[in-house]
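Good morning N.,

You mentioned wanting to compare the apo and holo forms, so I went ahead and generated the holo version with hypoxanthine. This is what I fed in:
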Amino acid sequence: MNVDQNVKETVAAIAKRSAIKPKLGFVLGSGLAHFADSVEKRVEFPFAQLPHFATASVEGHPGKLIVGEIEGVPVAVLQGRLHAYEGHSMEQVLYPVRTLSALGVKTVVVTNAAGGLKKIMKPGDFMIIKDHINLSGQNPLRGPNWDKGPRFLDMTEPYDKKLNQILKACLRAQKARVFEGVYVGVMGPTYETAAEIQFYAKAGGGAVGMSTVTDVIAARHAGLRVAGLSCITNLGTGLSRMKLSHDDVKKVAQKVEKSFTKALIEFVKKVKSDL
Ligand code: HPA
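and this is what came out, ligand included:
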């Protein structure tokens, strides 16, 4: 697969319908799609209509790219993402974020729904992702290197401290409870066992989920600055009595999506001069 040629074709298909040149990107996790309604001058591209995109299948992940403006800032929003557990190849999973970079995006906010690994967390809290542990069993950059980035990618600071602090302040201003911690990325699609949750917590994890690390690795490889945010939709298995279901995960995320949306719009205003 020739990534350069493919992204060129994808970008050309987008440029046919929108003249906007996005600088800021968003990846929206399960149940957090509402933010995309704030995009003005919007043009929507269902993944199925974009050349070289695989199609998202998970409920709560509609799978489209939206190009437009928020607060006058040109943005590209991935509403829904592709997960490796759906059976997509890593190259397919990376492709949407690579498309953001090819569109001209230099900064990306990556969000997800996640299980909290600390007992003091409650559903509806947020966690700023300050680092991650990739336990998905795969590295998305395996295979021929895309020469946009190095073969051996430094991972000293995958999440931009300054952007993360701005995001945290914006959430706090919405009266949200915000933690900072390490995101543990697993493959899924099963939720974790109670023993796995104990293991991840002991390893220093703050939240666990089935996405994000691949997006972040792809984004860093393409040279993007990254801010990371988990919506804690539940406590990890065994930390509360609740059994886990995707419906509950979506419901909790949808409960906080108003404050989430407001915080992200404030974030756009704050970073506008630094894009
Ligand atoms: N585990 C993994 N992924 C998740 C969870 C969880 O508890 N909650 C939301 N996504």
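The pocket of hypoxanthine is lined by residues 113-115, 191-192, 208-210, 233-234, 236, 244, 249 (CB under 6 Å).

Happy to go through it together on a call whenever suits you.

Best,
F.
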